[in-house]
Design goal:
Chain lengths: 250, 246
């Protein structure tokens, strides 16, 4: 199983203070990686969850809306951790309004965090990776990279963008030793979806359409993250792995 | 890394005597699985490659065109090995002719091995997996599940079929604990691809700048065969050095 070993690797995981990001970061750490968690506020509780298992994680409080501070953030992480081998762009936001009323500021907010921030984190960390000829980048796409959803046009736009520019980056960087791939989670039971889970009708309709017959959990993504972060996926470039209990095939 | 552990599992790998199937079977075995290799003729050399590493594999000489013998083959493997947890439908063939003169016998041959045999192996082994509420099925798709290729229309047809009916099976079986997924390899260095792999145009179109070696698929097979992919259903995982995104 050395194909999946991450010993000696440093992984940046954005938005890993909770939800899917935290689940993936924990598993990367269990496979041997040191994790740098970027989030608005990384809680002592989150760090303690790593320490409990004897895993290494450092928190970096940072707002990904601060684009002009990316170089100093990445330089700081590189200096403190010694290297950056894996970048998992997981932070994301959601805003719901009917399309006819969708306010420009919410559109910009969602596009900024879900798409623009992901691209510029790739650019900033990509430079470091190109220089050493090695890197694994994983971006969070979504079912809404393929479908349109309901009352979330900005989210759909942003996730479509992520899937496509990940291929653009793969076309430029694959030959430089960097793999760029996406994970498209299905309907996962996290805080981002509390509104959906609470809506009895929507939540029933969603469940009826999932072949696996259940919502996903953060643990369901852990294996995909390790796979795409490890040697096991060295010839996989520009791909989107759907972890959706079969939703897209239905 | 226990997510990727296959200890105690039994995996059938069709066409596992050489090429991609053999490389995947070896890695499944390294991860702890016991392997049943199904091929027209499983050579002593192949089995020796497993034994050299202290891995467990048994050969079953079988021609997958013999549809009416699937039940007895699978029953024999189940009896010999004690269980069947993983099925990798990897055996495949290719015949090239310009479409205008594509002969019906070659069309049928390719469709039979690449699509129909895969479906009926899924059906035969699927029954056992449904009964125990657990199973991992991996079918070999191709870039030609997405693209048309040149002078291989039956191959493209068969690989399109595999990708699509794998979703049909996933829709029926996912809730029963059986995962059905595909791997779509790009251009890999095997006997099947010997006629085109060294074409420089292929490399020009491959972002990774190299063709794949059988070992490049090993990790994907383990991922889809293990607990790590329990919520992945009906997916086609593309391992192509980036070609499809180009
Ligand atoms: N939950 C699902 O069903 C689902 C489905 C598809 C895709 N996704 C994607 O998966 C990713 C994680 O989702 P989740 O469900 O865990 O969401 P979540 O809301 O539970 O977690 C998102 C994290 O991102 C952080 N974050 C948000 N804005 C930030 C900013 N400006 N700077 C720094 N950190 C910021 C949050 O603080 C939070 O910790 C997102 O990209 C989401 O779009 C989720
Ligand atoms: N090599 C590539 O570039 C490539 C690309 C995409 C997909 N694939 C697919 O991957 C799979 C493996 O391909 P490969 O390149 O290793 O090919 P290969 O020709 O080296 O191996 C195929 C194996 O299948 C066996 N087989 C063929 N017909 C059989 C039958 N009737 N009964 C039992 N066994 C039979 C052969 O004996 C052989 O061992 C195939 O499904 C192929 O379509 C290969």
């Amino acid at each position: 199983m050395s194909l999946f070993d991450l010993k000696g690797k440093v992984a940046i995981v954005t938005g890993a203070n909770q939800g899917l990001g935290k689940g993936m970061a924990l598993e990367l750490a269990r496979c041997g990686a040191k994790v740098a968690i970027i989030d608005l506020k990384v809680s002592a509780e989150t760090i303690a969850d790593f320490e409990k298992e004897g895993l290494q994680a450092t928190g970096y409080d940072f707002n990904l809306a601060d684009f002009d501070k990316y170089p100093s953030l990445v330089a700081k992480i590189l200096k403190e951790q010694g290297s950056i081998d894996i970048l998992l762009n997981n932070a994301g936001v959601q805003k719901r309004h009917p399309a006819e009323d969708f306010p420009k500021k919410d559109w910009d907010f969602v596009m900024d965090i879900n798409a623009n921030a992901v691209f510029y984190m790739c650019q900033e960390v990509g430079k470091v990776m190109i220089e050493k000829g090695y890197g694994k980048i994983i971006n969070l796409a979504s079912l809404l990279s393929f479908q349109g959803g309901l009352t979330v046009p900005a989210y759909a736009a942003s996730k479509g963008a992520v899937m496509q520019f990940s291929k653009s980056l793969s076309n430029e960087w694959a030959s430089k030793g960097i793999t760029i791939n996406c994970i498209a989670p299905g309907y996962m039971d996290t805080e981002m979806n509390t509104a959906l889970v609470a809506d009895k009708t929507r939540s029933r309709q969603i469940l009826e359409r999932i072949p696996a017959g259940r919502w996903g959990t953060p643990e369901d993504l852990a294996g995909a993250a390790v796979f795409l972060a490890s040697k096991a996926s060295d010839y996989i470039n520009g791909h989107v792995i759907a972890v959706d209990g079969g939703w897209l095939g239905r | 890394m226990s997510l990727f552990d296959l200890k105690g599992k039994v995996a059938i790998v069709t066409g596992g005597n050489r090429g991609l199937g053999k490389a995947m079977a070896l890695e499944l075995a390294r991860s702890g699985a016991t392997i049943a290799l199904v091929d027209i003729k499983v050579s002593n050399e192949t089995l020796a490659d497993f034994e050299k590493e202290g891995l467990k594999a048994t050969g079953y000489d079988f021609n997958l065109t013999h549809f009416d013998e699937y039940s007895s083959l699978v029953a024999k493997i189940l009896k010999d090995q004690g269980s069947i947890d993983i099925l990798v439908n990897n055996a495949g063939v290719k015949k090239s002719h310009p479409a205008v003169e594509y002969p019906k016998n070659d069309w049928d041959f390719v469709m039979d091995i690449n699509a129909t045999a895969v479906f009926y192996m899924c059906q035969t082994v699927g029954k056992i997996m449904i009964e125990k509420g657990y199973g991992k099925i991996i079918n070999m798709a191709s870039l030609l599940s997405f693209q048309g290729g040149t002078t291989v229309p039956s191959y493209a047809a068969s690989k399109g079929a595999v990708m699509q009916f794998s979703k049909s099976l996933s829709n029926e079986w996912a809730s029963k604990g059986v995962n059905v997924n595909c791997i779509a390899p790009g251009n890999f260095n095997t006997e099947m691809s010997a006629d085109f792999i060294h074409n420089p145009k292929i490399l020009e179109r491959t972002p990774a700048g190299r063709w794949g070696e059988p070992e490049d698929l090993a990790g994907t097979a383990v991922y889809l065969a293990s607990k790590a992919s329990d919520y992945v259903n009906g997916h086609t995982l593309v391992v192509d050095g980036g070609i499809l995104g180009r």
